[in-house]
């Protein structure tokens, strides 16, 4: 008897207490609170078919929740025209998560895992976060029949979400392949929504918007006249000229991008940027990640190819400006003074900069402007010394004008020197023949690529892919050779044009007292300032001329005449 009693004490009976018995008893007639359910709908594009899909999702959720007597629809959250692989730009989704954290509803119902997220990490992160809130929020995936508050749901969710993620990668790869095929056929994708100067006709062809084209032409005209991109942007903003997005605020970067854009001369370079990860959608500049496709004469040009090439050459000239001969330091281009970014020290190669100095005359202070080597002026650290003296700005201007006076007497000699310089950079007969041959090879390879791209094969054929890659690689090699030859040819054309401009300018020059800053920038490539006030100017046509400056004394110095210059040279 005692043994039975002890056994009973050591093995007490377990009485199960149902969950609803733990709940506080409600008053008579008081109803159970309904479960608040939020619905989430998403479509990835704004196409008409997708809009229909979105409406169907919303209607389905409303009817689905109405059929549940203990459910109450809190709100339908939605995102239209956004991808499911990243939640960054899904405003409806993010607002829903915020409201869930604030305990505004108990469940989220959505059509499927792919509507909620195609990124496995995002999907599981949000599921676990909502599940672990003080007031847990579950997600019901209707198509898969999963309730995330169910303990068995996460394993199934991981498998299905992973499949969805891989499906997204496959879709992205297929879309990318299709886009590249269109590019290889010469069919570019050029959106005109924010493309200044162009509109699209009913057939999808680019047509010039003349009002906007005037803005583009103005930018190129001002740039080629010597203005820097900050100054051009400032002028456009001041005149309240509208950008492609309708703003009146211009930036230096937006002007620079417009100048670099080959589409304004009628060509199209496709695949300038690429998406490396279809889940993050982060785009990067295409630096040999994938092939690019250059389509010539794709649409009507706003800027002539000659002016566009001149603008690229000017960009290159400005980008080459260095602080020292070894190219270790860079500086920004400016156009605040006639000689800005045009003068360099002839002794050490460092750019010469403008200074405002103060002196006294007859007890009165006065300011004057000079140009001096940055190392000599101790404005830049260097492991060497430079003792080039500063030279007055007005002395440079007057010495330059005196040089022009002398040049007007030797136009035949200038023409001969210019033609000799042009000949040095011009293509030889063999190189011209090679240029034509390379152009034919590139056209032939392009036709082969186009022909292969026309094959609508949906299967992955390794032989097809390898052949196409080989053709693209071969095309790139010939393209590089073509660009090098063409660059030399364009250089000779550029120099010939500037030789004609210089000779025409000298033939009509009559005023040798006024310094013409505009023509200086239009005809001169750069100037060098040596010790003892000597200067040398290199013109854009390859002609070089020396000028003699002088030390500015207390008394005004009369400009040197032609006879004086001839005596000094002799």
TrEMBL record:
InterPro entries: DNA_bind_recomb_sf, DNA_bind_recombinase_dom, Resolv_N, Resolvase-like_N_sf, SSR_resolvase, Zn_ribbon_recom_dom
Stretches assigned to coiled coil: 428-455
Residue intervals of the Resolvase/invertase-type recombinase catalytic domain: 36-186
SUPFAM superfamilies, per the entry: Resolvase-like (SSF53041)
Gene3D superfamilies: Putative Large Serine Recombinase, Chain B, Domain 2 (3.90.1750.20), Resolvase, N-terminal catalytic domain (3.40.50.1390)
This protein's record includes keyword Ubl conjugation: no
PROSITE patterns linked: RECOMBINASE_DNA_BIND, RECOMBINASES_3
Pfam families in the record: Recombinase, Resolvase, Zn_ribbon_recom
Keywords: Coiled coil, DNA recombination, DNA-binding
Domain Recombinase: 195-321
Name this polypeptide is given: DNA invertase Pin-like site-specific DNA recombinase
Organism field: Fusibacter tunisiensis
């Amino acid at each position: 008897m005692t043994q039975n009693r002890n056994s009973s004490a050591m093995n007490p009976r377990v009485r199960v207490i149902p969950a609803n018995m733990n709940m506080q008893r409600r008053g008579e007639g008081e109803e159970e609170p309904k479960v608040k359910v939020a619905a989430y709908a998403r479509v990835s594009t704004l196409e008409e078919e997708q809009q229909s899909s979105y409406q169907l999702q919303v209607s389905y959720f409303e009817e689905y929740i109405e059929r549940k007597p203990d459910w109450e629809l809190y709100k339908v959250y939605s995102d239209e025209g956004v991808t499911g692989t990243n939640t960054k730009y899904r405003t409806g989704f993010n607002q829903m998560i915020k409201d869930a954290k604030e305990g505004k509803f108990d469940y989220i119902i959505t059509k499927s895992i792919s509507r909620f997220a195609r990124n496995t990490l995002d999907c599981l992160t949000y599921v676990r976060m909502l599940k672990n809130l003080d007031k847990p929020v579950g997600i019901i995936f209707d198509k898969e029949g999963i309730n995330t508050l169910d303990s068995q749901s996460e394993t199934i969710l991981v498998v299905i979400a992973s499949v969805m993620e891989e499906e997204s990668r496959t879709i992205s790869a297929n879309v990318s392949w299709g886009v590249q095929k269109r590019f290889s056929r010469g069919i570019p994708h050029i959106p005109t929504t924010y493309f200044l100067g162009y509109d699209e006709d009913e057939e999808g062809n680019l047509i010039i918007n003349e009002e906007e084209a005037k803005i583009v032409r103005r930018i190129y005209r001002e740039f080629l006249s010597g203005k820097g991109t900050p100054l051009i942007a400032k002028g456009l903003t001041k005149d309240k000229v509208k950008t492609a997005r309708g703003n009146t605020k211009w930036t230096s970067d937006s002007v620079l991008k417009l100048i670099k854009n080959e589409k304004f001369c009628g060509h199209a370079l496709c695949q300038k940027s690429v998406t490396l990860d279809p889940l993050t959608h982060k785009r990067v500049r295409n630096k040999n990640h994938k092939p690019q496709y250059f389509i010539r004469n794709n649409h009507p040009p706003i800027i002539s190819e000659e002016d566009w090439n001149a603008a690229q050459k000017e960009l290159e000239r400005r980008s080459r400006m260095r602080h020292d001969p070894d190219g270790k330091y860079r500086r920004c281009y400016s156009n605040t003074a006639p000689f800005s970014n045009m003068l360099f020290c002839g002794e050490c190669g460092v750019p010469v900069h403008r200074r405002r100095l103060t002196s006294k005359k007859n007890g009165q202070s006065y300011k004057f402007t000079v140009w001096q080597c940055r190392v000599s002026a101790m404005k830049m650290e260097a492991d060497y010394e430079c003792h080039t003296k500063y030279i007055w700005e007005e002395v440079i201007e007057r010495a330059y004008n005196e040089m022009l006076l002398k040049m007007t007497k030797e136009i035949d000699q200038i023409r001969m020197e210019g033609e000799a310089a042009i000949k040095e950079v011009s293509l030889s007969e063999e190189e011209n023949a090679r240029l034509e041959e390379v152009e034919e090879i590139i056209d032939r390879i392009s036709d082969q690529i186009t022909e292969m791209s026309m094959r609508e094969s949906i299967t992955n054929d390794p032989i097809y892919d390898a052949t196409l890659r080989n053709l693209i690689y071969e095309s790139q090699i010939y393209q590089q050779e073509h660009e090098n030859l063409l660059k030399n040819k364009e250089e000779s054309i550029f120099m010939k044009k500037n030789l004609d401009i210089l000779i025409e300018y000298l033939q009509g020059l009559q005023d040798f007292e006024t310094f013409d800053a505009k023509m200086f920038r239009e005809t001169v490539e750069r100037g060098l300032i040596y010790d003892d006030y000597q200067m040398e100017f290199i013109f854009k046509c390859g002609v070089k001329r020396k000028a003699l400056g002088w030390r500015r004394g207390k008394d005004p110095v009369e400009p040197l005449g032609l006879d004086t210059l001839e005596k000094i040279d002799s």
